[in-house]
């Protein structure tokens, strides 16, 4: 039995070691160096072998081992360091060995491992000093339960960026009796002191506010900056925190809870910001509390009002768990926590009489006005009018932003005159020097505009608040129920809506305009909507618009099917989510299931399969709670979507379970086409789990049944799976024949043809045949269609195939770059290589062998930095094989 048969599999711990200063040591020892090197290998080999390590390679003073047990690997390292220290060495010069470990999923292939986990372990070893044992957080966590000696502990060295990796790795030093403790900071890596966002606009004013907050943070552990939406809370907090990085030994970390999809993900949001990885079987909050314990750091927590109860509970646990944690939070409302210091943000400074240069409020208005005008400077003659506007806006940043946006339509004088007229209607006679407090919040500012609206326009504002993003005139008209041009013009004039891209007021002839409501205004309008008792009507109209908008991705204006482009769903995805939220809580779950069906492929191709499954579960619960009747055919379609999404997530048991439910419902519905689609999806999970014979039988049965029932096109998924299976085992002729017969079926199904799966698999067949011309042509067709139509996950798959085509075509550097792009796409979109994984690994290894590690890694990293679209442009620019100088096409007969 070969040694490769005994290599660890599953969760593997990799160890790299080398001698620090080996070149210097060799010069000092001269002829004795060889004996020292041999003895060093013997000492390490005994310790690692006793710990169950498998030696992978020896090169000079470097060793590479693999362990199936992280705790055993650590024990072996500790023993090795002790044994090295206890020996007498030639010339009295003991070798100082540095060691680095990392743990991750790995499977051996032909007696070796091809995985980034190995490279990460190597980089960790490179970061260590002689006599030091470094490991990743993954290794430390994996070893915690299995450490055989209670005296072995870990010293957290913080987050570091390893050479060749874009993410941050938390490094731990192994501490045990007999080992050195004090070392310099890790070598060749840079500690990340903060993750504060970098603003794209300049920060104006707030000097006194920063001084006040800085003083408060020195004596208060929880300071909450409170104010209305648009008051500049986030910008002030980030600017202040940037100046405090040096004051916190363990860094300043920013988390925006607006990015959390729901309250359950608040802890995950902060965990991601701190660079922590989830620990299997352990609550995220426990990981967070353990992480901050004993550290001195500043947490800048933004948009806490998104989920105030969940955020408040999180902050309370963190503050109780570590006295070194300080929290600077921003919120529209106090969190109600013990020890909370509420600091309300004031407006920007206004002008005083006799001013000679603009104050903060006017300066902000000037800067934003210039941006709104495409960079054209504000004339000095406009400053007085702008000062009037700033005073009317009460110095609130968002109000100034709204006013500046209006300057795309009005001159400064016109805007100032209009603002004065409105104020005269609501608070006549109030001077800028004594603005009432009610004008110093955005709610009051919005209410000031709202009370001047005609009833029909006010109702439109309330009803538009159910949208979550920009809307066009057609959407407004559907909600409004009448010609919306006059009403929309009024809302744009009052800056309650932003006319994106407009250089003039909206008109009936300019249907490309989109109208955007800022969040503070939307929040105000939604409260008004609920107070008016109109929410159900407005949301059901929004739901109807969403269903129509989703349908338009599948059909043309005449109702005829069109090639599905997922890019048409991208702009309305958030609207569809809002509709799903409504249907899963108070609306029609049946309508929600239809929207989920429209989003099926979008979820898959955007790496959001888990989100889709979550929505479907909520909709099932809503069906049961409301007792809503859903036809079996629609229920079967939803179960089938759920099954496919589960498969994308690698949840094969769940995939097969929902496939069974879909089959039962399809039988009840007596829908042969739907039933065939359900059964056609059975082969892929069987193939993924290695049940090749069962997968082939299921696919062939589904294809045969579909042919008998006259619904052959609905069995395309079975055709694709069977073709991949045939390709895997080398039955290339049968695979090609099968795909050729499927081409017209794919072309006749608009929902499928944009993916060009037939061309993709034919390209793979051609690659195995060594026919680069055919492979290039098929893969280019597949890649171009997938990118154009927004099938990003599938496009990433095709990039891998194009990498193989380049490798076989004598372009290894380009191949390495495309391999990197393909892997990055898989990582971003949360997909795996599936049945192609081994194929990619084989060809990556071959390209690496041609280029060498350094060149390959450099090209691979360059490709990893590319988006799918940019990588596709690179791949599509690859020269056709027939254009090569030695092509047979140009050879004389």
Automatic annotation (TrEMBL):
PROSITE patterns assigned to the protein according to its UniProt record, in alphabetical order: GUANYLATE_CYCLASE_2 (PS50125)
Family annotation (SMART domains): CYCc
SUPFAM superfamilies (alphabetical): Nucleotide cyclase (SSF55073), P-loop containing nucleoside triphosphate hydrolases (SSF52540), TPR-like (SSF48452)
Domain spans labelled Guanylate cyclase: 13-125
Molecular functions (GO terms): adenylate cyclase activity
Source species, domain of life: Bacteria
Single biological process term from Gene Ontology: intracellular signal transduction
Pfam (any one): HTH_77
The protein's name: Guanylate cyclase domain-containing protein
Source organism: Virgisporangium ochraceum
């Amino acid at each position: 039995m070969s040694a490769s048969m005994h290599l660890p599999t599953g969760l593997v711990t990799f160890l790299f070691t080398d001698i620090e200063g080996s070149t210097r040591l060799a010069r000092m020892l001269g002829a004795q160096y060889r004996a020292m090197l041999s003895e060093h290998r013997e000492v390490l080999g005994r310790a690692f072998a006793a710990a169950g390590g498998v030696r992978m390679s020896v090169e000079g003073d470097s060793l590479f081992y693999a362990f199936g047990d992280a705790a055993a690997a650590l024990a072996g390292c500790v023993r090795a360091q002790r044994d090295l220290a206890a020996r007498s060495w030639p010339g009295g010069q003991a070798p100082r060995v540095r060691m680095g470990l990392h743990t991750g999923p790995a499977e051996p292939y032909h007696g070796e491992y091809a995985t980034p986990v190995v490279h990460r372990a190597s980089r960790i070893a490179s970061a260590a000093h002689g006599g030091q044992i470094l490991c990743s957080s993954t290794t430390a966590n994996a070893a915690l339960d299995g450490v055989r000696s209670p005296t072995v502990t870990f010293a957290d060295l913080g987050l570091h960026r390893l050479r060749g990796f874009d993410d941050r790795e938390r490094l731990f030093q192994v501490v045990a009796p007999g080992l050195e403790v004090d070392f310099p900071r890790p070598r060749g890596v840079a500690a990340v002191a903060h993750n504060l966002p970098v603003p794209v606009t300049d920060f104006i004013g707030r000097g006194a506010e920063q001084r006040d907050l800085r003083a408060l943070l020195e004596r208060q552990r929880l300071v909450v900056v409170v104010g209305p939406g648009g008051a500049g809370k986030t910008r002030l907090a980030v600017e202040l925190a940037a100046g405090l990085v040096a004051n916190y030994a363990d860094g300043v970390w920013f988390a925006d809870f607006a990015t959390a999809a729901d309250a359950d993900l608040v802890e995950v949001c902060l965990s991601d910001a701190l660079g922590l990885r989830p620990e299997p079987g352990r609550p995220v909050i426990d990981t967070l509390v353990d992480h901050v314990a004993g550290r001195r750091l500043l947490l800048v927590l933004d948009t806490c009002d998104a989920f105030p109860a969940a955020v408040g509970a999180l902050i309370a646990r963190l503050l109780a768990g570590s006295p070194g944690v300080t929290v600077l939070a921003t919120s529209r409302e106090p969190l109600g926590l013990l020890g909370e210091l509420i600091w309300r943000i004031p407006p920007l400074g206004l002008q005083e009489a006799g001013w000679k240069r603009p104050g903060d409020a006017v300066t902000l208005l000037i800067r934003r006005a210039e941006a709104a005008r495409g960079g054209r400077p504000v004339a000095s003659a406009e400053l007085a009018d702008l000062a009037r506007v700033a005073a009317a806006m009460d110095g609130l940043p968002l109000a100034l932003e709204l006013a500046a946006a209006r300057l795309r339509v009005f001159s400064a004088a016109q805007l100032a005159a209009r603002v004065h007229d409105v104020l005269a209607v609501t608070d006549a006679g109030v001077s800028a020097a004594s603005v009432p407090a009610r004008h110093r919040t955005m709610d009051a500012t919005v209410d000031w505009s709202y009370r001047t609206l005609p009833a029909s326009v006010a109702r439109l504002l309330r009803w538009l608040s159910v949208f979550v993003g920009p809307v066009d005139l057609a959407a407004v008209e559907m909600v409004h129920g009448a010609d919306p041009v006059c009403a929309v013009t009024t809302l744009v004039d009052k800056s309650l809506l932003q006319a994106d891209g407009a250089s003039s007021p909206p008109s009936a002839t300019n249907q490309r305009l989109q109208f955007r409501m800022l969040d503070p205004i939307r929040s105000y309008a939604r409260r008004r909507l609920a107070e008016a008792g109109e929410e159900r009507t407005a949301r059901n109209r929004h739901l109807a618009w969403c269903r129509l908008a989703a349908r338009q991705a599948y059909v043309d204006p005449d109702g005829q099917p069109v090639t599905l482009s997922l890019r048409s769903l991208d702009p309305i995805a958030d609207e569809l989510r809002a509709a799903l939220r409504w249907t899963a809580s108070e609306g029609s779950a049946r309508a929600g299931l239809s929207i989920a069906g429209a989003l099926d492929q979008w979820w898959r191709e955007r790496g959001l399969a888990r989100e889709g499954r979550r929505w479907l579960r909520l909709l099932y619960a809503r069906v049961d709670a409301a007792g809503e009747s859903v036809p079996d055919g629609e229920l079967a379609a939803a179960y089938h979507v759920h099954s496919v999404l589960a498969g994308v997530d690698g949840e094969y048991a769940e995939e097969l379970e929902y496939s069974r439910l879909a089959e039962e419902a399809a039988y009840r519905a007596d829908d042969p086409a739907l039933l065939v689609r359900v059964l056609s999806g059975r082969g892929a999970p069987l193939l993924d789990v290695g049940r090749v014979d069962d997968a082939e039988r299921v696919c062939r049965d589904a294809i045969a049944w579909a042919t008998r029932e006259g619904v052959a096109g609905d069995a395309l998924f079975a055709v694709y799976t069977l073709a991949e299976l045939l390709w895997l085992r080398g039955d290339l002729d049968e695979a090609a024949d099968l795909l050729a017969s499927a081409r017209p079926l794919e072309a006749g199904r608009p929902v499928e043809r944009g993916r060009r799966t037939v061309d993709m698999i034919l390209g793979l067949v051609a690659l195995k045949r060594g026919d680069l011309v055919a492979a290039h042509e098929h893969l280019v067709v597949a890649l171009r269609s997938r990118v154009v139509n927004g099938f990003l996950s599938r496009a990433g798959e095709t990039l891998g195939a194009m990498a193989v085509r380049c490798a076989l075509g004598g372009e290894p550097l380009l191949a390495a770059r495309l391999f990197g792009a393909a892997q990055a796409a898989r990582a971003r979109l949360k997909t795996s290589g599936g049945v192609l994984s081994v194929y990619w690994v084989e060809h990556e290894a071959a390209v690496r062998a041609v280029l060498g590690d350094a060149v390959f890694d450099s090209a691979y990293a360059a490709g990893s930095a590319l988006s799918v679209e940019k990588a596709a442009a690179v791949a599509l620019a690859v020269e056709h094989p027939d254009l090569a100088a030695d092509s047979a096409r140009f050879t004389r007969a």
